[in-house]
Write a structure and sequence with these properties.
The protein is an alpha/beta fold. About 45% of the residues lie in helices and about 15% in strands. The chain has a single domain, classed as Divalent-metal-dependent TIM barrel enzymes (TIM Barrel, Alpha-Beta Barrel), CATH 3.20.20.150.
């Protein structure tokens, strides 16, 4: 088996240039454009541009779903309704562009962080997310798409792992965001990989110095990506590897590093 490598659509201002670069370098693309409300409210003008740019693209496509202020299990009815509406838009866009992997957030960060260590809250949250995804994943199963839930403010990999295991769908897995692990938790990325196990399907790769979610080059921060790739190889897991780095120079530096590691 081999690793699929994705670059961010934010690496260039012109999406046509992103597609050309990915085609030339034998890379895949994670589309980041459709996370903002102003874009989702203007799809008639924007979506055809992306569809045209991708008409001859031979690589694989993933997409980051809408997330700002969204949570499918919010205690606020309007937020739950808005979340389902934005999720549905995301799936429809993915269908139009032939995207096969969609990255979602659980929405835990819409709650007060004081609850993140509360056993009762986490029990309710896991049960509620399980109930939501058990129904919603059927939409993606019918379209043969993968949904991956990304860690944001979760302080333990068990939270999302329990949701995915309880839903028990081949179309719902997990995305490890390395920067979030480093910035938001006291665990190493290696530990997060080991505890996620076979449910790991996709990764957002970027580095930081723990203080901020900087999205730096893999070589600039406190995450030791030598150890990250060592752990991946030891566990025999082959997730999609998405360089979630918008700066072109930093992304190319990171790509060179990743390809060297994968060749060893």
């Amino acid at each position: 088996m081999s690793y699929d490598i994705y670059i961010s659509s934010k690496i260039k201002n012109d999406f046509n240039e992103v597609v050309s670069l990915a085609q030339k370098m034998n890379l895949n693309i994670e589309i980041k454009t459709f996370v903002k409300n102003r874009v989702l409210d203007n799809l008639d003008n924007i979506l055809p541009v992306y569809k045209d740019a991708l008409k001859n693209f031979n690589g694989k496509l993933s997409m980051h779903g809408a997330f700002a202020g969204l949570c499918p299990v919010s205690d606020k009815v309007n937020r739950r309704k808005k979340t389902v509406f934005r999720f549905d838009q995301t799936v429809d866009i993915a269908k139009t562009l032939n995207v096969k992997i969609i990255v979602f957030h659980s929405g835990i960060d819409t709650f007060d962080s004081k609850y993140f260590d509360d056993t009762d809250f986490l029990g309710w949250f896991i049960d509620s997310e399980t109930e939501f995804w058990s129904e919603y994943i059927k939409k993606l199963e019918n379209l043969e798409m993968m949904a991956v839930i990304e860690n944001t403010s979760e302080n333990s990999p068990e939270i999302l792992r329990k949701i995915v295991e309880r839903v028990n769908s081949d179309n719902l897995k997990l995305c490890i965001d390395t920067g979030h692990v480093n910035h938001k938790t006291n665990l190493t990325v290696q530990e997060w990989i080991e505890k996620t196990g076979k449910n790991l399907y996709y990764m957002h790769l970027h580095n930081n110095y723990k203080l901020f979610d900087d999205h730096n080059s893999l070589l600039k921060g406190t995450i030791d990506f030598n150890e990250v790739f060592k752990t991946l190889k030891e566990t025999g897991i082959y997730p999609g590897l998405s360089l979630e780095i918008a700066d072109y120079k930093a992304a190319m530096e990171s790509l060179k590093f990743v390809r060297e590691k994968l060749q060893k």
